[in-house]
Design brief:
With 234 residues, the protein is of the alpha/beta class. It contains seven helices and nine strands, in the order E-H-H-H-E-H-E-H-E-H-E-E-E-E-E-H. It has a single domain, classed as Rossmann fold, CATH 3.40.50.880.
Length: 234
Amino acid sequence: MKITVWNENLHEQKDPRVTANYPGGIHGFIASILAEDGHECRTATLDMPEHGLTDEVLADTDVLLWWGHIGHRLVDDAIVEKVYNRVQEGMGLIVLHSGHHSKIFKKLMGTTCNLKWRHDARERIWVVKPSHPIAAGVEDGFLLECEEMYGEAYDIPNPEDVIFMGWFNGGEVFRSGCTWTRGNGKIFYFQPGHETNTAYHNENVKKILKNAVKWACPTVNGAIPVQKFAALEE
Ligand code: ZN
């Protein structure tokens, strides 16, 4: 499987806590997790020509992961359109943490994707759909000692599956792991991953990312065509 991990890579340039948590940046760290399963992993960042998402790279990507936060508005609309079209064709898309407000996620969802938030909460993640392949081998009710709270109401279209529910020590709850299909493309949103916390070091989170790319890998590739269809019977 061919995976591209995209990160705006902006916090890494100004906050030493982020590179202390994630040497090589969040993109490099996530790519190293997924490479453990033998996937071909490349990274792409905002500052690269075409944000590193050229036609060649997108055509050669089975699953794209997206981490963005303070640079959403800097992402070129033409690139968003290309990613959108690749998802329709079948490329898997995994949107992480503050990527909920990325142009690509909002375009695919068609809603504001707004939510409640505050820093530094303790989170428990419950598996609410144990039969889903993304939940395979994930410990029920696992704990993240410090993570950013994202809370309901979360303005998303009804997910096809809610696999994980987050509970925070302020009492808030959140649909932390949700799936949708758009065209042939499978989409997974996963909430943990604030840049100054360490969620991607958690073994359950790593397992979820590994399961998610396998689940999102295309089974069909190519836009669903418009066809004139002959009648089967006279
Ligand atoms: Zn955050």
